[in-house]
Design goal:
The structure is a homodimer. Chain A contains nine helices and seven strands. Chain A has about 240 residues and is of the alpha/beta class. Chain A has two domains: about 160 residues, Rossmann fold, CATH 3.40.50.1000; about 80 residues, Orthogonal Bundle (DNA polymerase, domain 1), CATH 1.10.150.240. In chain A, helix 8 links the parallel strand 4 and strand 5. Chain A is elongated. At the A-B interface, helix 3, helix 4, helix 6 and strand 3 of A face helix 3, helix 4, helix 6 and strand 3 of B.
Amino acid sequence: MIDVIAFDADDTLWHNETLFTSTQERFGELLARYDQGDWTKQALFETEMQNLQFYGYGIKSFTLSMIETAIKLTGGRILASDVQEILDLAKEMLNAPVQLLDHVAEVIPELAASYRLMLITKGDLLDQETKLARSGLGATFRHVEIVAAKSVGVYRSLLAKHQIPPERFLMVGNSLRSDVLPVVALGARAVHIPYTTTWAHENLETHHQPSVDYVELEHIGFLPAMLESLGKQVPCQDRVGIEC
Amino acid sequence: MIDVIAFDADDTLWHNETLFTSTQERFGELLARYDQGDWTKQALFETEMQNLQFYGYGIKSFTLSMIETAIKLTGGRILASDVQEILDLAKEMLNAPVQLLDHVAEVIPELAASYRLMLITKGDLLDQETKLARSGLGATFRHVEIVAAKSVGVYRSLLAKHQIPPERFLMVGNSLRSDVLPVVALGARAVHIPYTTTWAHENLETHHQPSVDYVELEHIGFLPAMLESLGKQVPCQDRVGIEC
């Protein structure tokens, strides 16, 4: 029933938000030298949201927003050496080792034997490509699509481009907003695997969600069993480890 | 003979390097407040080259390198207000109107009627997508590929992905290094249309070029005639405005 399984990358295949969170903490410590209290996180998020239309997603955008926020919060008193420290944080992030989530190293090659696998991710082009290379999973994905946004229109174009009928497509990811809702809207299937931490921008309040048809799994290790259940037409409710 | 014509974007379809050049001039003026003389340009270029492996191409990368260079050249004396000015320059660049090169507005829609057109460009994903949208040419390109680098391997993957035999593919661009040599190496055709200004990184010394088979045109307005000449098997040398 399913030919193509597409995966989100950050926080679905490998840890990512933890890297941003720990950098944000160090950014907070840097700003604390200027007596700014703890509204740093909110101020940074606001700057990021204002800049999203210009910068898009990724570490470079995040870094430019950190610098802008630091100038603002310190009232222009930030020292060049601290701006340099922010630049160094960026390079550390870009060089950080890729840490796969549990079960990913086994499940992805297993699924690659039976399905066409695809990667669909937002973020910096170069950063995502090098992370994929460093992850050791590069060869298992038939198609890699790095996109500026994950809207219904973007998914529609991707399916058309690769000539995939929606009913034969399954998307797996940690974000309801980016990986699940737009895919279900097209009549394709989606699996939601929540990550421990989610960036505020990707959060959707539960009461904003229409009643949509997707499967939620605790971790990616349950994915092969879920796919088997689809093939066997066993009602989802009867499968272990799956919330339908 | 040719089914697919791919175009580079920056400095092939629309002006780009002039935007970087004018920003660089303003960056130089900003640094002149700190008595740095005029080796700014070389220092910036060196920072950009060192950062290329981390940041890749595009305006955000350029901006992060400007900030790093400014900190270095001022010996850490740069004021936060001047760092903010550099951030403002970045947003101006990202918002700058897209100025098509001469003949592009006529030639591209004309060719779209007879060929599958493709865009292959480096740079920031979001920036390139919004420029394409603002250019008014978006609908004329069947495929848009924004890549982290333009190597032989990248072109090989693109042709495989779109199932294009190399002998039916023609690439048009302003950079010998990125748009011509790797394409010719694959056995496909390439047209070089030099831009008035070329970023130092894209420059290839003439004596480094192997003897390769490509066509050089003065401007894109000559492209339809050149393509017609291919179809008619008329020797390239007999066509007007073409250097073979």
